[in-house]
Automatic annotation (TrEMBL), chain A:
Primary location recorded for the protein, binned into one broad class: membrane
Keywords, alphabetical: Cell membrane, Membrane, Transmembrane, Transmembrane helix
Keyword check for Membrane: yes
Organism: Noviherbaspirillum cavernae
Localization per record: Cell membrane
A GO term for molecular function: branched-chain amino acid transmembrane transporter activity
Protein name: Branched-chain amino acid ABC transporter permease
One GO cellular component term noted in the UniProt record for this chain: plasma membrane
CDD domains: TM_PBP1_LivM_like (cd06581)
Pfam families membership: BPD_transp_2 (PF02653)
UniProt topology in membrane: Multi-pass membrane protein
Domain of life per record: Bacteria
Length: 336, 287
């Protein structure tokens, strides 16, 4: 992994990590606004991209920063979706508090399961996360009297946001709602990951056995980030439930977890933005190719994965960064 | 009482099938330190080879099994030589992604060639029905399967404990660098072992069509079970997966028989508990 650069002999490097927003980032966040006006026919797809993007960012905290390979992250997404959906079905239709409740529920579940995950090595973690996901799936499947089982949770009716903005058929309000929630959560996560806590996670990822030597409590940090990731995934799930007014069993399924890992790796891990870019590219491609034939789609996504692993480690973000660095180095070389 | 023994017998048959398919994965994970989620795809390949040979060419069931072994072993050998070996030193995340990608491609290819439906299997007459064993009626096919797995396991034990090649495998598991220094061609041992493991998976896939079924979703549907056997048993051993497969087989069958309302919950719960108690597997190496 090339995310950690050697410390430069520049006195500013020893202060808190730089949290200033770069122009490119500000430009990035103008894209959804442009999208709203330019592609008003695709707002439903747009809000789905933002929701999956938020979900992918939540996995990035765990996988990209802390280096825990999780194959069961959909557990939290689905739990959040069911929490928000069930709340709405039983009469509590206010969206924002619904999000909050979903976040709290998944955070608690994430905190409890984090102790199972933090123990052990890669393979054990992989299996335990997979197991937790599958258990939740089975639970939701068998408890059909609560969740609707294979038919999914139907009859979700959401109230107006702030009592003013009503979800419309064209997905305008859903798009703006998802966009604002995504932005707020992202700003918070960006701040957290650019703090010493985030740096500590990178340290654990790069060499967990050495971190205790500088006084870091590895397990505690992993527990915190796992809980945080779970809560964010829960918010993403709740957003999906509220904007589509439906929760399916597949929101908990293994294929959703696997797909999410693919999205994140496609975009690039350990940078937060990778999840958003991966979600956009993946979902647009899926929307296009799966329309032709779902079997082909699966074939191409498999091939894409193999190519990424063999030739393009670091994903789209990694590739872009490598090109930018290359140009910078050439420019610097030219000056000498 | 008869019920209990019947469930135990079915559990053992199911477990021994799981063992046959998973033991190759245990070796890949232990010897080569490679998390190979595509292992089920080799089993699926073996299954399709069996079905094709029997339905299209009229080759008898017993004769199609060794061909399924050889076919899957060759596929494993080719993939190991071309793709897998490049990723031995890669991170576990890369290996997971690579093998998921391979699984997706195998599933899509199987759907393309054979269609999404379940494949039928025509068992020979003498394998259908029940036989009497110590006064107990048991499925003839399940008895046959246990017999095959016992023979294979003994052969595998002999290969690993008594032959020169087995000694090379054991040496390479323990210390690759030292083995290479002693003149063992570690990369060749890897290739052959991988082929052996894939072949056994293919054999298991062919043998298991009647019990596990066969359709393009096979590699994903049973991926968890194969991984479970290895993770719970401990990678890199033979006895570990055997023990784990038997335990899991019995619990899965018993769970589905006695408490069908919670279904697969039993097995996942058992897995999480076992992994917490034995993070390196029941008989795994402590590193």
């Amino acid at each position: 992994m090339s995310a950690v650069k050697p410390v430069q002999t520049n006195s500013t490097q020893f202060r808190l990590p730089n949290d200033r927003w770069r122009p490119l980032e500000i430009l990035f966040w103008l894209i959804p606004i442009a999208f709203y006006f330019l592609f008003s026919g695709y707002l439903v797809l747009g809000s789905q991209i933002m929701i999956v993007g938020l979900f992918a960012v939540s996995l990035d905290l765990i996988l990209g920063y802390a280096g825990i390979v999780s194959l069961g992250h959909a557990a939290f997404f689905g739990l959040g979706a069911y929490a928000a959906g069930l709340l709405a079905v039983h009469g509590w239709t206010e969206p924002l508090t619904g999000l909050l409740v979903a976040a709290v529920v998944t955070a608690v579940f994430g905190y409890l399961t984090s102790f199972l995950v933090v123990r052990g090595q890669d393979l054990t973690r992989l299996m335990v996360t997979l197991g937790i996901g599958l258990m939740l799936f089975e639970a939701a499947n068998k408890a059909a009297f609560i969740t609707g089982g294979v038919d999914g949770l139907q009859g979700i009716v959401m109230g107006k946001i702030f009592g003013v903005f009503e979800f419309d058929l064209y997905g305008k309000v859903a798009f703006i709602y998802s966009g604002i929630v995504l932005f707020i959560v992202f700003v918070i996560l960006r701040r957290v990951m650019n703090s010493p806590f985030g740096l500590g996670l990178i340290g654990i990822r790069e060499g967990g056995r050495r971190m205790p030597a500088i006084g870091a409590n590895v397990n505690q940090r992993l527990t915190v980030v796992f809980t945080l990731g779970a809560a964010v995934a829960g918010i993403a799930g709740a957003l999906l439930a509220q904007t589509t007014q439906f929760v399916g069993l597949d929101s908990l399924g293994f294929s959703r977890s696997a797909e999410l890992v693919i999205i994140l790796v496609l975009g690039g891990t350990g940078r937060l933005y990778g999840g958003l870019i991966g979600a956009a590219v993946f979902m647009v491609a899926q929307d296009y190719i799966a329309g032709l034939n779902p079997v082909y789609w699966q074939f191409w996504i498999g091939l894409l994965l193999i190519v990424i692993v063999l030739f393009a480690r670091g994903g789209i973000m990694g590739g872009v960064v490598a090109i930018v660095e290359n140009i910078k180095q050439r420019a610097a070389g030219g000056r000498k | 009482m008869g019920n209990l023994i019947g469930v135990l017998f079915d559990g053992v048959a199911y477990g021994s099938l799981l063992f046959l398919i998973s033991v190759g994965l245990s070796i890949t994970m232990g010897l080569m330190n490679f998390i190979n989620l595509a292992h089920g795809a080799f089993a699926m390949l073996g299954g399709y080879i069996c079905v094709m040979l029997m339905t299209r060419m009229g080759i008898p069931f017993l004769a199609s099994l060794p061909i399924a072994f050889v076919g899957s072993a060759i596929a494993g050998l080719v993939l190991e030589r071309t793709l897998y070996r490049r990723l031995y030193k890669a991170s576990h995340l890369d290996q997971v992604l690579f093998s998921i990608g391979l699984t997706f491609m195998a599933m899509a290819a199987a759907t393309y060639v054979w269609g999404p439906q379940q494949q039928p299997v025509q068992l020979p007459e003498w394998l259908r029905g029940q036989v009497s064993l110590f006064g107990l009626e048991v499925g003839a096919y399940r008895l046959f399967m246990i017999g095959v797995v016992v023979v294979i396991t003994l052969a595998l034990g002999f290969l690993i404990e008594r032959t020169r090649f087995g000694a090379q495998i054991r040496a390479s598991v323990d210390n690759q660098a030292a083995s290479a220094g002693l003149g063992i061609n570690v990369s060749r041992v890897f290739s052959l072992t991988f082929a052996l493991g894939s072949g056994m998976a293919g054999l298991g896939g062919g043998l298991g069509i009647d019990i596990l079924g066969l359709d393009p979703a096979f590699p994903i549907k049973y991926m968890v079970y194969f991984l479970l056997v290895v993770a719970v048993g401990g990678a890199g051993t033979i006895k570990g997966p055997l023990l784990a497969a038997l335990i899991l087989g019995i619990f899965d069958v018993a769970g589905k028989y006695y408490v069908p309302s919670i279904g697969a919950f039993v097995i996942y719960g058992l897995m999480v508990v076992l992994l917490l108690l034995f993070p390196a597997g029941l008989l795994g190496r402590r590193t």
